[in-house]
């Protein structure tokens, strides 16, 4: 009996060691997975575009904010904001869709700490918004911008609308991590604070954990200002099977937008969190609806 107990104990220790090793290997692999991509990496995707994509930089507090733009700055601006982690190419499907990009200037940004933008991540949503607000100033169409976001990009977009309302016409948010109540720290956020894990993780995952750590507190501050957005057209796209941003977030937004006649929900029962890739056409439809309203 004692021998069997020893064997079970050894087996359990080996199992834990193997699982720990696999976790370290997975984290190390993020350094390869999250290498920033250039326009050249997607050259073939843009072959049918009327306007070729171009990379630009704008300055913010000593950082070079990178973004990719399709179309002349005299066309209406559609501003794409990725989640966490992410980079400009996370939203590329809406840049290569000619039903959008032939009629609008489509811009996708690398937020602070991601892609080709400098920094190591940013905890403050107001600074996140301020860092990318310079791109709004490049809009020479004479029309306000449409802001499209996913996941963590949602609260950044909301902050942008709160702080620069005169430059934004409407918003489309896919699975926005926008409700403080439903954005507690996850187990992997705590793991990411562990020195060994942090040392192994890619810079993008480190930046992601840095901005996710205080998100609940940041959203609590932001929620006090949601009343300022009750006149801005806002479309929420969310799936009932979202395991990262709970579906209950929709109820939170519905309550906040009670007095907003231009608030709309697009709900799919079988949709998960990764809407820009799994349900691209759904987002495309809502973007085009906002664009048509802006143009007509």
Index terms:
296 residues, alpha/beta, 12 helices, 8 strands, 17% strand
Structure commentary:
The structure is a single chain. This protein folds into 2 domains: 33 residues; 258 residues, Rossmann fold. Helix content is 40%, strand content 17%. The protein is built from 12 helices and 8 strands. Strand 5, helix 5 and strand 6 form a beta-alpha-beta unit. It starts with a helix and ends with a helix. The mean pLDDT is 90.
Overall geometric form? globular
Distance between the termini: 81 Å
Q: Please identify the structural class as seen in this structure.
A: alpha/beta
Please tally the β strands and state the result: 8
For the residues shown, what is the average pLDDT? Answer: 90
CATH architectural arrangement of the largest domain = 3-Layer(aba) Sandwich
- Over all CA atoms, what is the radius of gyration? 21 Å
CATH uppermost class of the largest domain: Alpha Beta
Largest sheet: 8 strands, mixed
Low-confidence stretches: none
Q: Determine the CATH topology of the largest domain.
A: Rossmann fold
How helix-rich are the residues, as a percent range?
25-40%
**Total discrete domains:** 2
Q: How much strand content do the residues show?
A: 15-25%
Task: Tell me the series of helices and strands, N- to C-terminal.
Answer: HEEEHHEHEHEHHHHEHEHH
Q: In CATH, what is the homologous superfamily of the largest domain?
A: Alpha/Beta hydrolase fold, catalytic domain
- Alpha plus pi helix count: 12
Going across the biggest sheet, name each strand in turn: 1-2-4-3-5-6-7-8
């Amino acid at each position: 009996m004692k021998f069997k107990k020893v064997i079970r104990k050894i087996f359990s220790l080996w199992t834990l060691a193997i699982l720990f090793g696999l976790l370290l290997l997975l984290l190390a692999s993020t350094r390869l997975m999250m290498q920033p991509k250039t326009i050249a990496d997607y050259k073939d995707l843009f072959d049918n575009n009327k306007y070729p994509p171009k990379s630009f930089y704008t300055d913010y507090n000593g950082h070079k904010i990178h973004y990719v733009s399709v179309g002349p700055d005299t066309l209406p601006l559609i501003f794409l904001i990725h989640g966490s982690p992410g980079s400009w190419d996370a939203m590329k499907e809406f840049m290569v869709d000619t039903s959008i990009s032939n009629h609008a200037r489509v811009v996708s940004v690398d937020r602070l700490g991601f892609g080709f933008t400098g920094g190591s991540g940013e905890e403050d949503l107001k600074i996140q918004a301020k860092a990318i607000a310079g791109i709004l100033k490049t809009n020479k169409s004479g029309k306000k911008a449409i802001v499209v976001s996913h996941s963590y990009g949602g609260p950044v977009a909301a902050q942008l609308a709160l702080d620069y309302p005169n430059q934004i016409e409407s918003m489309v948010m896919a699975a926005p991590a926008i409700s403080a109540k439903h954005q507690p720290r996850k187990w992997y956020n705590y793991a990411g604070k562990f020195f060994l894990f942090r040392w192994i993780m890619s810079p993008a995952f480190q930046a992601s954990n840095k901005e996710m750590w205080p998100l609940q507190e940041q959203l609590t501050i932001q929620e006090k200002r949601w009343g300022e957005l009750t006149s801005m057209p806002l479309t929420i796209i969310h799936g009932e099977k979202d395991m990262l941003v709970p579906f209950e977030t929709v109820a939170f937004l519905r309550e906040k937008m009670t007095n907003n006649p231009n608030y709309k929900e697009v709900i799919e029962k079988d949709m998960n969190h990764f809407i820009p890739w799994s349900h691209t056409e759904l987002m495309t439809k809502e973007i085009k609806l906002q664009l048509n309203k802006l143009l007509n």
